Each structure stands twice: as C-alpha cells, then as structure tokens.
Fold:
Amino acid sequence: MKTTALIMAGGKGERFWPKSRLNLPKQFLSLTDDGKTMIQLTVERINPLVDMKDIYISTNENYRALVREQLPEIPEENILCEPIGRNTAPCIGLGAVHAAKKNEEAVMIVLPSDHLIKSNEIFIDTFKEAIKIAESGPNLVTVGITPNYPETGYGYIKYSSDSKNGNGVAVEKFVEKPDLETAKSYLEDGHYLWNSGMFVWSTKTILEQFKKYMPSTYEGLLKIKDAVGQADYTEVLNKEFPLLESQSVDYGIMEKAENIFTLAGNFGWDDVGSWLAVGRIKKNDENHNCIAGNVVSINTSDCVIQGQDKLIATVGLKDMIVVDTDDAILISSKEHAGEIKQVLAALREQGKTQYL
Amino acid sequence: MKTTALIMAGGKGERFWPKSRLNLPKQFLSLTDDGKTMIQLTVERINPLVDMKDIYISTNENYRALVREQLPEIPEENILCEPIGRNTAPCIGLGAVHAAKKNEEAVMIVLPSDHLIKSNEIFIDTFKEAIKIAESGPNLVTVGITPNYPETGYGYIKYSSDSKNGNGVAVEKFVEKPDLETAKSYLEDGHYLWNSGMFVWSTKTILEQFKKYMPSTYEGLLKIKDAVGQADYTEVLNKEFPLLESQSVDYGIMEKAENIFTLAGNFGWDDVGSWLAVGRIKKNDENHNCIAGNVVSINTSDCVIQGQDKLIATVGLKDMIVVDTDDAILISSKEHAGEIKQVLAALREQGKTQYL
Structure:
C-alpha cells in the first residue's frame, strides 16, 4: 500500500511568543541548535518512509508562502490550506480525501509539525510497525509516548496487554488531561501512554470512521474530495470546510471507535510545549542556563535567555525565561509561563496587533 | 557673608546602569516625573540661597559639555573639572579655593548632585539655619537626616543634645556604615542621623581644617588658588591636583575636627541610591509596580519596569527591576540589585566597553 503523510501545521504557537508570531508561528521557527525549522525536521524525519510527493501539509493561506519557502520539495498541490481552523478531525479528513483521491488504497501517517524526536531511527522503526498494523486490517493506530513523570498537560491512552497486533497493543480508552494524583496513578499502573497526536491508518479506514461517527462531516468531505484537482476546488473547499463540525479527532472518533492499537514510542519525544522545553532541548551552561545571544549573567541560574543583538544583562535571576526579538521582549517566571497567552489577550485588547 | 555653593557632580552612577553610562551618569538623568535632571533639580533647589554666579559645579572634563548644556546659567569658570578623581576632600578643597579667591569671606554649601528632596521649603529653612551657624564662628555644619529605619548603607552622625548652636547640636562622632544590629541600636538611641554628605562652613574655616589635618593637600590647594583666573591655571591644576591625597572629607577632616554641629534635615531626603529608589519616588500602580514605557504586565507586582519603545511583556514577576535602553536591557531581582556593578566589571573584562 502507498504510504502518505499528513503534517498538521496550522497552529499559532502562542506559547512561543514573542518569537512565534501570527505571521511566523512555532512550526516555522528553528528552536534547535541545527538551524532547521520544526516543520523541516518533521518532513526530514518521515521522508525515509514517505516520498515527498506523498507528504501533505495542512495549514492555512497565511502560511502557504512559508511552507513553500521552507519545504520547496513538497508539491504545491499538497499544501492544504484550510479556509478556517476546525480542529483536528476536519483537518485529518481533508488530508484523507486528498490522499485517497490520488491513491484509493493508501496508508496515512498523521504528524504534528512542531514536535522534536531524539532518535529518528527508532522513530522510523516504530512507524514501520504502525504501518504494518494499519495495512493488516481496519485498524486505527496511535503512537503513544511512555510517560516518565506524571505530566498533567497531556491526555493519556490506556492499553490492554491482552490483545496484541504485531507489537501494537489494544487501546482500552483515551482519557483527558488528569490531575496530578490521577497522573501519578497512571504512571504506577504502567498501562498508560501519553497521547502525542500521532496516528497511522489507511485512508479507507479513517474515512469509514468519519462516516460512522461524524456522518455530516463525512458528507462534506466527500464533496471536497470530488472537487480535488478540479477548477472549482477552492470554491467548494471555502463553502464546505467551514460547515464541518469543529471537533478534535480524539473526541470525534478515537474515543468512540474500535480496533484501536497503540505502540509505545520510545524515540525521545518532546512536544516543545513552551519556552521551558528549550531549556531541556538546548545545551545548558554550568549554571543550568540555556543562553543565546548577547548576554551577561550575574548570579543567574536555571534560566532560558534567548537574546539577539541588544545586550541583556541579568542579575540574581532564577527559573526565568527571557526572549528578545526586534520589537518585543518577554520576561517571565518559569512558573507562570503558561500565562503568556494572557499577554496576547492584553495586546489584542489594547489594539497592539503588530505584536501578535 | 556671601553665600556660595559647591555641587559635586563627578560620580559615575554605576548603580543606575544601563540608563546611567560613563558618558551620561545618573546626575545628568531625569529620574523623576517632572523631566528635570538630578543636577538641574539640585541647582534649582539651592538657588533661593545662592546666586547662579556663586554656584560651583565640581565635575571632570568628560561632563563639562553636559553641565553647560543642562545648566547654561552657571558661569563657565564655575565648572571645576578635576583632572582625576581624588575623593571628596580634594574636591571640596578645590571648590573652597575657587570661592575664596572670589570672596575671601564666604559661606560654602556643599551638596551632592544626585539626591532628591521632597520639601524644598524645609530644605531652604534648614540651610538658612546652617548658614547662621557657619557665619557665627569657626564651625563645621553637616546636615544629617533623621533615620526612619535601620539602614546599613549609610554612615551615621552621633550628636549630643547638651551642646547647641542655634538649632544645631554638637556632633559627638561620625561612624561608618553599621551592621543591622548596630543600626537598630542607633535608631533606638535617638541621637543618630544619617550622614548625607551635605555640609555648610565658611571657606576660611574649611581651609583652616585642611591646613591642620591635611597639610600637604592644603599646600597644593594654595598653589591652585594662586593660579585661579591666571593663564597657567589648567597647567597648575593638572600638575597639583593629582598630587593631593585621595581621601574623603569625612575621614580626612570631619572625624578629627572640632566645632562640628549638625541639623536634622526633615525635608524628605532620598539619595536615589539604586533602581529600587525609583519605585519609591515615582507613582506606583495598584500592584505596587513603577512602570514606564511600552509595557504589558501579567501577574506582576512590586517591580520597577522602565521601558522605551520596544514592547516589554512581563509574566509572573515579583520584586524585579527591568530597565530598557537603546542598546542594553537590565533584568535584575531587587534583592541582588547591588550586583549590577558586577555586570559592569564583566563588560570591562569582555571588552564590551560600548555599554559602560
């Protein structure tokens, strides 16, 4: 079966403000020391399993030029621009009908565009396994992550060791973000994985699920499928896509479907969820600081400081995040980093949209 | 007796980096909401007691242009440029010989150029009293500040209520910066004032003290006095001044002299010793922040944030100092603000002298 991939790249990356902006969100930034952007790394990583012409990028019109610029090998027609964000289910459905239009029998890998992986080799081996399971029947495969601490910011996947399919194990249920006590119990239980939003299935199987669990969305997707490659494609897309139910694939399909298997991805996964992650990913100095740019630090430890040309002098800082850009600088405690979104809300409210 | 004033304006103001720079130190900055610089406020404050032509500014060649620009009413010949910094005793001696050259019988008020005063009216009344004492005999008058907390960063003046001169009381001794326990005992004792570095005496009296306690400095000062107004003044100054003993007036004269009186200055004094002081001086918002410039603050309290054009976004900050300038930004905890000098040392070491 032909293997295809859908890379979801429509996010705004607000937690990486002020580097991540409406016109240059996180997936188009380089956050690693190699200078490659997140989406370039994602494409490069999956390319051993999928030809460039079978990789689809789901994004929106604002980022089309960025995708073309950063991924010139991806065919223009594979850049799928959603007229409006409708969460992951319609996004995946759109990718599925495009892939299915070209190859009625195709495996479809779904990947976020803004995660980092330590071992590409183990990553590829894991997805080879996942593809086998997806090809062997009407199975939905999700690649989970073995948790190593009780994270409360992710959903979890509970699996049962009793039912296997190759190296995959049957998923018993998907669970929402837990509180700390619950997360601890999951870790202790040993049958829970983090839900990373990475999936493998055949286009046929996933479209069957849409038909069963999201029938009106399925109807809309079929209309779009008919128009793929036609002159009226954009017109149909702009008419039909906004009518699709705004829903996550987890809630709309995965929590209801059967034949779901999971593989534990032990390839060193990081969703780079915030500036805190940069401190984990990049090299740290002897004071556990992750510092770049023109910086002088006195009595400063456990900080992420991303400077540019302007001199940043820090004195007596601990557990802080400092990110400088041409027009804005963020200074945040690590503890309150989740409140960066409130900065963006305040900027919107004050009409300072040039900083968004 | 003619009243003159010497305003000491040679300091580097390192604790106000990055606004205060080698080429624009604290005394030439505006730190208040009225837009006037520290030295302009100082001159304006004393002017009701001293004619502009009798105000001397002690500084160095680097700041001559700044003094002329900010204080155009001060005669050019009253700008006294030290060839090299030799601490306060030679600085005061130089002012004394200039004032004495013009008026053999003159009262001399000595003031720092970078302090703030809340009530100019009470300030003037206090100095009128001080002038009376200075005119009434060979007395040295220092204006102290009634302490309202056990500050360990200032020297103290111990006075005796037994011996009075007008409203002035006799100084028993000068004491160095105390530790916290000692400072507390001073506060409890009730006979201690902060040593603010403000003095009043006649030029004749202070020069007599030099003769008695710093005789070689006195000899040098006399040579300079002879040259005042002469063609070879600069030549003589450059030769003699560097030979003067580098010494504070407190240690060199005040700790040894007799006939010292003090007045308690209750005019709302602030030496604006660091960025922390700006939080005291300027208006604070409801979260006890002192914020200027283009700033968005989320969950931020008890901070001093001095922005410019660039957007500064703060999240989860408490007790912090943030000061932005065109080429450098300081981010410091209030607790460690004293270590700003280490930033300057690091910059010197790294050869980044453009930021000093």
In short: The CA atoms of residues 1 and 106 of chain B lie 5 Å apart. The longest helix of chain B spans residues 120-135. The mean pLDDT of chain B is 95. Chain B touches chain A at residues 17-18, 296, 298-299, 310-317, 320, 322, 324, 327-333, 335-337, 339-340, 342-343, 346-347, 350, 352, 355 (CB under 8 Å).
